[in-house]
Amino acid sequence: MQTPFIEEQAHLSPDGQWIAYVSNESGKWEVYLQRFPRSSGKWQVSTAGGSQPRWRHDGREMYFVDPKGMLYAVGVDLRAKVLIAQPQSLFQTNLADYAMGGRYAVTAQGDRFLVNIDDNADTRAINIVLNWTSALKK
Questions:
Q1: Residues spanned by the domain of 101
Q2: Total structural domains in the chain?
């Protein structure tokens, strides 16, 4: 895209027909959606700032993070005409840094998230035990 604005953090839809991206054209960072390759028309997805767009595997829902680190889900219908639902907050994260993309991942069904926490955050260790059932056989 060649505009006087900054566009970044592009993420293609699962079918490769749409692109979600972040732009500062409104004066603040917002998530937008448009056909890919580029055609006329674009739609704003976030309503109060947004970054780090992601898609659910069926392309019917998108996710983004607002400036305060809240993760949102937005239903989208891109079949006949573009319909974008009101964003729904899911949970608070610490992902308010717009300079960093790719700090979370979503499962194909959109029911679980892997969030990269801040290295300076007060955290507790998590122990993951693999093949734990083998200890039961002894």
A1: 7-118
A2: 1
In a domain, 57, yes or no: yes
Which among 5, 12, 19, 24 has a CA at the least distance from the CA of 98?
A: 24
Look at the alpha carbons of 68, 36, 74, 81 in this order and tell me if their dihedral is positive or negative: positive
Is 133 part of a structural domain of the chain?
no
3-class SS of residue 135: helix
- Domain contains 135: no
Gap between the Cα atoms of 70 and 88, Å rounded = 10
Residue 129: inside a domain, yes or no? Answer: no
pLDDT in tens, 109-124: 988 898 887 656 566 6
SS3 category, 133: helix
Q: Is the dihedral of CA 14, 19, 23, 28 positive or negative?
A: negative
Q: What is the pLDDT of residue 1?
A: 64
DSSP assignment of 4-49: SS-EEEEEE-TTSSEEEEEE-TTSS-EEEEEESS--S--EE--SS-
